[in-house]
């Protein structure tokens, strides 16, 4: 039985199959298809021409832009952003002649990460919390929390704050400050960044959850 919350919106051109679930206040726009067995949380948004396969698990407040297919084997935690036409996969070595439906590989997109437009996430990996995958990047290995990944193949270029700004200029104690939020970050050990002011699993305080300055203005400071 299909479970679509009363407060959810599904455009008339989209289909939600029997056995799928769509949470409160989620919006599914034009030409989308949610297959049986897909589980979508609350307050999510899906742009035009998205496909969500059976078995996919999607948390709350996930934003998926146009032309994104989310295949079986994918789990997406809360607050994830998927940019336009980004690509997710579920078989590393696909062949039309070889059936691997029972061998779909698991891909985990952890809380708060962002995947840029036209980026590709090769299956079987984990994208860490608040990681930032640049537009057009091809990611084939696990990504640490807060890592900024760019290029083909993707390599870590630095660290990003929860507000999506490059963290730079550490002080004498190795602390880096987000130019927008003022939240402080430090690399506790090589490859492990942590926020000093807010737990990674805690939601943003309401006053920090609305942007007030465009990226280029902060970049120039």
TrEMBL record:
Keywords: Acyltransferase, Repeat, Transferase. Gene3D superfamilies: Hexapeptide repeat proteins. InterPro entries: Hexapep, Hexapep_transf_CS, Trans_hexapeptide_repeat, Trimer_LpxA-like_sf. SUPFAM superfamilies: Trimeric LpxA-like enzymes. PROSITE patterns: HEXAPEP_TRANSFERASES (PS00101). Pfam families: Hexapep (PF00132), Hexapep_2 (PF14602). GO terms for molecular function: acyltransferase activity. Belongs to the transferase hexapeptide repeat family. This is N-acetyltransferase. It comes from Geothermobacter hydrogeniphilus. The lineage of its organism: Bacteria, Pseudomonadati, Thermodesulfobacteriota, Desulfuromonadia, Desulfuromonadales.
């Amino acid at each position: 039985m299909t479970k679509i919350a009363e407060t959810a919106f599904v455009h008339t051109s989209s289909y939600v199959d029997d056995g799928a679930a769509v949470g409160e206040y989620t919006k599914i726009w034009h030409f989308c298809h949610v297959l049986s067995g897909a589980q979508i949380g609350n307050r999510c948004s899906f742009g035009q021409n998205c496909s969500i396969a059976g078995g996919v698990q999607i948390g709350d407040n996930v934003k998926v832009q146009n032309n994104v297919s989310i295949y079986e084997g994918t789990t997406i935690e809360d607050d994830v952003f998927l940019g336009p036409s980004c690509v997710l996969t579920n078989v590393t070595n696909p062949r039309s002649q070889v059936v691997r439906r029972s061998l779909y590989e698991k891909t985990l997109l952890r809380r708060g990460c962002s995947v840029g437009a036209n980026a590709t996430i090769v299956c079987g990996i984990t994208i860490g919390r608040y990681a930032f995958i640049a537009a057009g990047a091809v990611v084939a290995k696990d990504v640490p929390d807060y890592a900024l990944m760019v290029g083909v193949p993707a390599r870590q270029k630095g660290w990003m704050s929860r507000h999506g700004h490059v963290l730079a200029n550490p002080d004498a104690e190795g602390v880096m400050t987000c130019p927008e939020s003022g939240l402080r970050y430090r690399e506790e050990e090589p490859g492990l960044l942590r926020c000093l002011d807010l737990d990674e699993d805690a939601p943003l305080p309401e006053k920090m959850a609305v942007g007030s300055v465009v990226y280029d203005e902060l970049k120039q400071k």
